[in-house]
Amino acid sequence: MNRAPVIAGLGITEMGKVYGRSAPEFAADAVRLAVTDAGLEPHQVDGLLTNTGITGDVGLSLQRDLGLRHLRLLSEVQAYGSSAGAMVQYAAMAVSSGMADVVACVFADAPLKDKSTGGGAAYAGAGGALTGWQGMAAASGIYSANTMYALAASRHMQTYGTTSEQLGHIAVAQRAWAARNPLAQMRTPITLEDHQSSRWIAEPFHLLDCCLVSNGGVAVIVTSADRAADLAQPAVHIRGWGQAHPGYVMGKDSEFGLVSGAALSGPTALKMAGITIADIDVAELYDCYTYTALISLEDYGFCAKGEGGPFVASGVLGPEGSLAVNTGGGQLSSYYMWGMTPLSEAVIQARGQGGDRQARRNDMVLVSGNGGVLDHHSTLILSPHAR
Amino acid sequence: MPVGTVLRDAATAEFFDGTARGELLIRRCDECRGPAAPQARTCPHCGSPLLSWTPAAGTGQVVSWSVVHAKGAPPIVVAIVELDEEPWIQVQLTDALPEEVRGGMRVRVAFERPEGGEAIPVFRPAN
Question: Would the pLDDT of A126 be above 50?
Fold first, then answer.
């Protein structure tokens, strides 16, 4: 009996400016799609892990929405952008231990409201009375993730000499990948000049340093290698995993902005998989901002600490580059489903179903998740091959 | 540039009592005497939960900064400032031209007193 964990199903709903559906509806649709993709029936699901986005309404009630009975595992998971990886990790351990056989892991969100009906993006930030510590930061002008990540990136720039143009290379390369991805929201190629001339959001970030906002849902099905053997899709083996939660002290000598959780979760996952970073063929990195992809490349060891800027500007990225990074366009250009963006593309690449954007080699695929303001991190090592 | 209004809660009451009288309060550990940020609940040096309020000198240096551009409003400069006592504080920089802000720049606290809210610490160039 081979209970080694695999991903056997992937469900991606309609994505982007899709109105009139709630996050729980997207979540249910994503699970149904993933179950069908795997060649399973909904009643065969015996585990469900949910991760809600900022609408905050995807949770335990999804079981009833889906009509699932006699579950052996059900929980909400919340570690922000690292949650997708974390859900797969908990599902993998449940399957390996025999606690459950078929676990659906789902994220869905619907932050975009139809502007014709008076809505707007729910990420827009502060509203109502501000109170307490968070309120003081917001009243001071620090009211969004954009600003906090800008402060992190600014520190990296001062310390290592990283430049906005270098960050721009990440945006340009990922858009080139997105042009080959029919699932991507932004497929028109951009230049470094486009990046530099896009409006400021929070310096050092231009608009084209920042991720999209999307409505939609993504789910994966985790089961055992044995169970997957006669299912519909090629099994994607979960070979290693890790997490990191740095708990930065906000004071002298803090590593905030300089070192991310990838520095700890990466080695944990690689060791479990029995490989080194040099063995990675495809890296699907959480890229809420260009900078997030850059610091992840450094902390995983694709280049030395502080050399991420020259590294990404060297031509290594993009469809013509030597390292396949964010092959679907990432959160910058494809769709923003928190950690499900890198995970979904990793599953596609590991299956060899990337079409025009399929990486030349896919023996080892690394997936990173990043949550909070560099506060939470997850890593998965996926492979088409069993150990 | 004006700051917004903020109301106190239980955790920030003493801090805002301090800003009202023109003092920037931080935490100091009752056991190891190490400094901690105003919002800390545990000493970052020894792990003790026993923290008391103490006035900071109100001087420090810019660790990191960002110029925030919001639609329909002039840009503002925000920063992480490392106080001379070691803790970081996230603040708005006033009276500083965005192009003149540098890492390591010396800054000093001032207090903005928006109507209907608590006094908020901001920092300006020290000289």
Answer: no
Q: Which two tokens stand for residue A337?
A: 């489903």
Condensed to tens digits (0 to 9), the pLDDT of residues A22-75 reads 999 999 999 999 999 999 999 999 999 999 999 999 999 999 999 999 999 999
Query: How would DSSP label each residue in A226-294?
Result: HHHTTSSS--EEEEEEEEE-----SBTT--TTT--THHHHHHHHHHHHT--GGG-SEEE---SBHHHHH
Q: Which residues of A touch B76 (CB under 8 A)?
A: 141
CATH architecture of A5-112+214-223: 3-Layer(aba) Sandwich (3.40)
Q: Are A109 and A115 in contact (CB under 8 A)?
A: no
> How high is the mean pLDDT of chain A?
96
- Catalytic entry in A80, A149, A286, A300: A286
- Mean pLDDT for all residues in chain B: 95
Nearest by CB: A251 against B69, B75, B88: B88
Chain region(s) in chain A for CATH 3.40.47.10:
5-112+214-223, 144-212+238-387
Chain B residues with CB inside 8 Å of A249's CB? 44
> Which residue of B lies nearest to A136 if distances are taken between CA atoms?
B6
Q: Chains A and B: how many Cβ contacts under 8 Å?
A: 113
Of A132, A147, A150, Cβ closest to residue B12 = A132
Q: Which fold has domain A144-212+238-387?
A: Peroxisomal Thiolase; Chain A, domain 1 (3.40.47)
Q: Where are the domains of chain B?
A: 10-125
Work out the end-to-end distance of chain A between its first and last CA atoms, rounded to an integer number of angstroms. 14
What does the pLDDT look like over B48-76, one tens digit per residue?
A: 999 999 999 999 999 999 999 988 889 99
